[in-house]
Predict the 3D structure of the following.
Amino acid sequence: MLFHTWPFLLFILIVYPVYLATRGTRLQCPWLLTASYVFYGWWNPLYLLLILYSTAVDYAAVLIMAQWGRRRLGLVLSIVNNLGLLGFFKYGGFAAENLNALLGWMGIPLAIPAPDVLLPVGISFFVFQSMSYTIDFYRGNVEKEPSFIRYATFVSLFPQLVAGPIERARELLPQLRGKPEVTWEDVTDGLSLFVLGWFKKVALADYLAVYVDEVYGVPDLYGAPALLLATFAFAWQIYFDFSGYTDMARGVARMMGIRLMLNFNNPYLAAGLGEFWQRWHISLSTWFRDYVYIPLGGNRRGTARMYANMVITMVVSGLWHGAEWNFVIWGALHAGGRILTRELERTAFYRERVPRCVRQALVFLFVCFCWVFFRADTFHDAVVVLKRMATGGFADPAFPLLMLGLIVSIWAYQFVYESRLRAWVERGPVTVALAAAMLLYIVLFCGSSNEAFIYFQF
Amino acid sequence: MTDREPTEAPFSSNAIRLTGRQWLATGAIVLAVCLLVSPVWRLVEPFEPGADYRIPYALNSDYWHFARYCRDAAGDDRILVVGDSVIWGEYVRPQDTLSHHLNRLAGDERFANLGVNGTHPAALDGLVRYYARAAAGRRVLIHFNPLWMSSPRRDLQAQKESQFNHPELVPQFMPRIPCYKAPFAERMGIAVERHLPFRAWINHMNVAYFDDMDLANWAIENPYANPLSRITCETPAPTEDARHENTPWNERGIKATEFDWVAPVDSLQWRLFCDTLATLVARGCHVFVLVGPFNEHMLTPEGREAYEAIKSDIAARLSENTSLYEVLPPLPSELYGDASHPLPDGYAQMASHLYAQDSFSRFAAGES
C-alpha cells in the first residue's frame, strides 16, 4: 500500500480513529500490529510469514541473552538469521551469478542454481531495525521488551516499515509503551509533513522520472547535454522520492503522536561528503556508523585504519542498496570521495579560501557522478553514460523548462531556508501560500499516481 | 541497562509547518479553487453548439465537455439522443446523422446528438450516471446496439484481460467485469474522482488543449513550449467529414460472420443498459429506447436465427418494463458500413421509420 493512493486514505480513515480510541489501552499495540500487517500484507500476504519469522527469531535471541545468559549465542543467532534472510532473498542471485562466472572462468563445468525468489518489499529496512534491537541489547543499551506484541509492533510499525526511517529500539519502543500524546499541533504538524512528502513524490519525483527513465533507458541515443541533465534530474528524483516517503511516514506517525527521526536534511547543500552523509538517509548512515564503522575501530586506530574502515562501511552500504556491482562501485566511490574531501578539509586553503558555495557545488557534482552508477541498469550502461557525457557531442537535450523551473525553485527555497531569510519563509501567509500552491499543483496537475517508491526495491 | 526517553526529533528540514488555522485557510483556498474552476471555465470558454453539433472525435474522452453539452441541450428542452458511434455517426457527416434527420422530420432542432464513440452499454451507464445529471426530467432517446452482445469478449465477459473503450466509465467494483483487471488502487481512484467535478475539468483541459496528456507529460513532449499559449479557450471544432468512406460493408471486403451471441439473461452489457434505463427513470426522464438496426445481412443463416431470438428477448424485456421502444427492422444491405453502422441514407430511413411509429411521434411531440 502506497501513502499517496486512495486505498491508503481508506486504510488510515479506518485505522486512525480506532488507534485514537485504543491509545493507552491494552489494545493499542495489537491494533497497531494488525494495521501494520494489513499494510504490509497488501503487497503480498506471504510476506507476513517472513516478517513474523524475523521478528520471532530476534525476540527469541534476546530471550536467550536475557534468560539463559548466553549473550554471544543470542547475538550470533540474530545476526546469522538476519543476514541469512538478506543473503537468501537479496544476494542469492548475485552470489550465484558471480560464482558461476568465476567457475566458468576457471573452466569448472558447474552451475550453481540461483534462488528464484521475489525480493520482499522493505526487507532491508525491517531486518536492520530488528537487528539493531538485539545488538543494542547485547551492548546493554536497551532493556528487554517483555511484550512480544509490542516488539512486533516496533519492527513492523506501518508508517516506517517499508522504507524507513530505520528506528532504534531505544527511541521507538518507549513511545509504544505508554499512551502517546496526540495534540492538535501533532495533527497539523503531521499533515504539514505529509503534504510536503506527497508533493515531493507525485509532483516532483514521478515527473522527473519520466525524463530520467527515457534517457537512461537507452543512453546510447542521447548526447552529452541530455545525459548530464538526466543525471542531475535523477539526483533530485531520488531525493524527492525518498525524502518524500520519509516525510509522509513521519507525518503519519506524528499524527499518531509518534516521533520518527529526521532522515534527510537538505543534503544537496552539504559542503563536504562527510556532511552529505550526515544529511542523506541519516537513519541508515547512523546505523552503519554505530553497527559497522565503530565496531571496526572507527577513527580510533590511526588514519590508515580509519580510511580502511570508511571504505568497508561504504562498500557494505552500497551492497545494502542492491545486489549489483554498480552499487558496490557507488559505495566505493563515495568512500574515495569522503577520504579525499576529508584530506582537503584538513588544509587551511580549502577550509578558508574556497567559498562554501564552491564546495557545495563540488560535492553536488561528485554525488551526481556517483549517481550514474546507482541509476544505470548495468555497469556497461554506466560506462556508456559517462563516456557519452565526455564525447557524445551536443544535441538538443529537450529538457522541459517546467521541470527545470521546479528544480530551481526547490533548490532556491532550500538555500533561502538555510540563510538569513529563513524567518521570512516561515511567516504564516508564506507557508499558507506554499501549502495551497503545493496542494493545487497536486490536485490540478498530478492526478492519481500509483508509482512505487525507488527505495522499495532495496 | 538504560532505556532512555526518546529524544525530540527535529521537525523537518523546511518551513512548511502550518498551524490549525493556517490549514483551515489553506483548505478553504484549495476547496474554493476546486469548486469554482469548472463553473468559471464555462464562462471563459465559449460554447455554441449548432443544430447538428456532435462532440468532436478528439473530445471523445472529455466527459466534462459531454456534461456541458448535455446541460446546454437539456436547458433548451431538446431531446437528448444518447448512445455509441451509431448515434454519433461513424460513417457520416454531422448533417447526415440520425438526430439531423429526426430534426428534419420534426421541422425544428429538438434532437441533440449526444452520441459518444465507443460507449458500449457498460460505459454508457457511467456516462449517464455521472455526467448526464442535467438530463433529469428531460426526454431521452437512448440507443442500444446489439453488437455489444455479439460475443463474450464484446460483452466484457472474457476471463482474460482485454482492452475496451472508456474504462473510466464502467463500474469499477460491482458488478464485476471479468476482463477488467485494473489494480485496486486505480479502480478506487476512478470511483472517487468521477464524483469530483474539477477532475473532469482537468481532463477537459488535457484533452482539449494538451493533446490528451497531463501538463507534466505534455511538457516532456514540448519541452520549450509555453503551456499558457496552448489555452486558446477554443475547443476543437466538430469534425465536418465522415470518419470513413461512404462505402457499403460488402464492398469493403467484409464477409458474413458467425457471432457467438450472449443472451440478454446472461449479458453484462444488457444488464448495465437496464441499469442505465433505471437511472434515467429514477431521474424523471421520459425515455424512448431504440434497438438496432444490426446488419443482419452479415449473419450466416444460423446466426440470423440466433439473433432473431436475441431481438425477441430484448423486445419482450423492454415491453415488460413498459418502456417506450422500437426494435428497428434491418436496413437494406447497401446502407450499412459495417456490422452496425448505417450509411447516410440508412439514417434517413431510420428516422422515417421512427416517425412512422405512433409511440415515437407522441414521444417526440412531448405527449406522454
User: Anything to note?
Assistant: The mean pLDDT of chain A is 89. Chain A touches chain B through 67 residues (CB under 8 Å).
